[in-house]
Design the sequence.
């Protein structure tokens, strides 16, 4: 049971329209020691344009076809493959999926191909890939030798870093520490999201962000390693628009530890990434706050700034949708890019 550390974990979930009142949503809280977080955009000449959040490569992202994908570390397993030439890391696989697939089925096929061809590596662990499009998606749990997917078409599905899919238990060698840690975070995510559902009958973006900032308590399976913990370095809530995924789909990103920064909307039609995001200035400021106060943060600090940003972005989405319905594509793109710029101005005053 080697490599039972907690420094490279994540918690992710899928939410469907019957719970959100609208978009398909894929969210990821990323836990990692990486600190240079930025928005990453595909090249201008890319066959399929995409937008992601990560460090060197994205660890979560979506493309203009309506495909969204994130991945969590899986369990320690005897079926691992060391890093050698020709093998791809999970962020490198994500780039290939985002840049080359038009739906979730194609994405799963590509992922399976990487495993079958011996091109996958992730230290001594497997992985969990969440793949979503405008109709549904998959949760694919895998080792370096096999992929076990399940179809997900509705409601709510949550995963941390332990396998749940049929056929995967026999390949697990995780210890009690990481197993309990994962169960704790899955419990907290379900609790936070269900509280919103019971109170309002719907899970809104702000409910997801509140949940993403939950810290551990003794109630959470006797551990203090929460959804937001000392290694949580970023998060993204990807909202896929079913009608116009190539324009209205949006990734709401926390560029740095979620307790020390705010979420801002980044549309798939984004023309340019601001320099102070690309050069990691936002990320560095958030990590400086984390280093100063750790988990002793006040979530309410970010709420008025997020509220102000969404007061700009939600109406912009509605106007852009009306423009798309009337085939005014350039107008829709201009509306959303202008709104993004205004949200960034609000965020700069809070974040930098």
Sequence:
């Amino acid at each position: 049971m080697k490599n039972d550390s907690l420094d490279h974990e994540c918690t992710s979930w899928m939410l469907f329209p019957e719970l959100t009142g609208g978009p398909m949503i894929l969210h990821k809280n990323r836990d990692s020691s990486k600190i240079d977080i930025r928005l990453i955009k595909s090249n201008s000449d890319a066959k399929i344009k995409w937008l992601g959040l990560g460090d060197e490569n994205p660890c979560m992202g979506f493309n203009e076809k309506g495909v969204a994908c994130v991945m969590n570390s899986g369990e320690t397993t005897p079926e691992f493959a060391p890093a050698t030439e020709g093998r791809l890391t999970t962020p490198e696989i994500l780039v290939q999926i985002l840049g080359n697939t038009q739906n979730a089925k194609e994405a799963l096929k590509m992922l399976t191909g990487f495993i079958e061809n011996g091109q996958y590596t992730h230290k001594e662990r497997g992985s969990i890939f969440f793949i979503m499009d405008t109709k549904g998606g998959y949760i694919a749990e895998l080792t370096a030798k096999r992929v076990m997917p399940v179809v997900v078409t509705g409601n709510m599905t949550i995963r941390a870093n332990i396998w749940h899919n049929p056929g995967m238990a026999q390949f697990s060698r995780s210890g009690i520490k990481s197993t309990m840690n994962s169960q704790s975070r899955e419990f907290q995510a379900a609790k936070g999201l269900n509280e919103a559902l019971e109170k309002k009958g719907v899970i809104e973006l702000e409910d997801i962000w509140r949940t993403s900032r939950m810290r551990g308590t003794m109630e959470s399976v006797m551990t203090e390693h929460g959804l937001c913990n000392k290694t949580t370095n970023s998060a993204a809530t990807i909202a896929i628009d079913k009608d116009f995924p190539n324009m209205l789909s949006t990734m709401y990103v926390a560029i740095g530890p979620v307790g020390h920064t705010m979420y801002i909307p980044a549309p798939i039609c984004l023309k340019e990434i601001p320099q102070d995001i690309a050069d990691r200035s936002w990320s560095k400021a958030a990590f400086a706050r984390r280093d100063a106060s750790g988990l002793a943060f006040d979530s309410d600090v970010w709420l008025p700034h997020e509220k102000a940003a969404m007061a700009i972005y939600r109406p912009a989405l509605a106007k852009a949708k009306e423009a798309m319905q009337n085939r005014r594509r350039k107008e829709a793109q201009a509306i959303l890019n202008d709104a993004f710029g205004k949200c960034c101005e609000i965020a700069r005053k809070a974040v930098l």
The two ends are 42 Å apart (CA to CA). The chain has nine helices and 13 strands.
